[in-house]
Specification:
InterPro entries: GTP-CH-I_C/QueF, GTP-CH-I_N, GTP_CycHdrlase_I, GTP_CycHdrlase_I_CS, GTP_CycHdrlase_I_dom. Belongs to the GTP cyclohydrolase I family. It catalyses: GTP + H2O = 7,8-dihydroneopterin 3'-triphosphate + formate + H(+). By secondary structure, the protein is an alpha+beta fold. The protein has two domains: about 5-45, GTP cyclohydrolase I, N-terminal domain (GTP Cyclohydrolase I, Chain A, domain 1, Orthogonal Bundle); about 55-185, 2-Layer Sandwich (GTP Cyclohydrolase I, domain 2), CATH 3.30.1130. It is built from seven helices and seven strands. It has helices spanning about 5-20, 30-45, 105-115, 120-135, 150, 170-175, 175-185; strands at about 60, 65-80, 85-95, 100, 115-120, 140-150, 165-170. It has a five-stranded mixed β-sheet. A two-stranded antiparallel sheet has the order 1-4. Strand 2 (about 65-80) and strand 3 (about 85-95) form a beta hairpin. Helix 1 (about 5-20) packs across helix 2 and helix 3 packs across helix 4. The longest helix is centred in the last third of the chain and has 16 residues, at about 120-135.
Length: about 190
């Protein structure tokens, strides 16, 4: 990620506070622009990161069965409202020729794509495509479930509602029973 311009963010936050009728110089808000700038640097830390980087190193293991890392917690910011959405990603793949990725790399790829202004559908597809391109597995299946604050604190105001997206590549795109296997494992506690 390029250098974040804290000054521009601070100026913009002051303007927003004024625009909504607040006094940015009152005691409780004095440091808010600085805090928001620091937060944005962290929250948008995935801008410019390529999730494929995490799959450049592979291990060779005599394994050609399903690999699933589930319940990968993530937070992101909706690019339409700049409000958070958060949830869990489940990343599954079947290695080809024994090429496996480090398990933490699956979570790191989710983290990289979620830490930028984003859409849930894009997170799902970007992780699936990165894993497919770099490992050339027999198949990839990604499921992402999240609660969107743009639906819970504004607009329709339906807290607790979740959006679920999925991306299937390779064998998972062709074989219903393979997808069903992953879904049943995701549901297991």
């Amino acid at each position: 990620m390029g250098k974040v311009d804290h000054g521009k963010i601070e100026e913009a936050v002051r303007l927003i506070l004024e625009a909504v009728g607040e006094d940015p110089d009152r005691e409780g808000l004095l440091d808010t622009p600085k805090r928001v700038a620091k937060m944005y640097e962290e929250v948008f830390g995935g801008i410019g990161q390529d999730p494929r980087e995490y799959f450049k190193t592979v291990f060779h293991e005599d394994h050609d069965e399903l690999v699933l890392v589930k319940d990968i917690h993530f937070q992101s910011m909706c690019e339409h409202h700049l409000l958070p959405f958060y949830g869990k990603a489940h990343v599954a793949y079947i290695p080809r020729n024994g090429e496996v990725a480090g398990l933490s790399k699956l979570a790191r790829a989710v983290e990289a794509v979620s830490r930028r202004p984003q859409l849930q559908e894009r997170i799902t597809a970007e992780v699936a495509d990165a894993l497919t391109e770099m490992l050339d597995p027999l198949g990839v299946y990604i499921v992402v479930e999240a609660e969107h604050m743009c639906m819970t604190m504004r607009g329709i105001r339906k807290p607790g509602s979740k959006t679920v997206t999925a991306a299937a590549r390779g064998i998972f795109d062709q074989d219903d029973s393979k997808r069903a296997e992953v879904i049943s494992l995701i549901k297991m506690s």
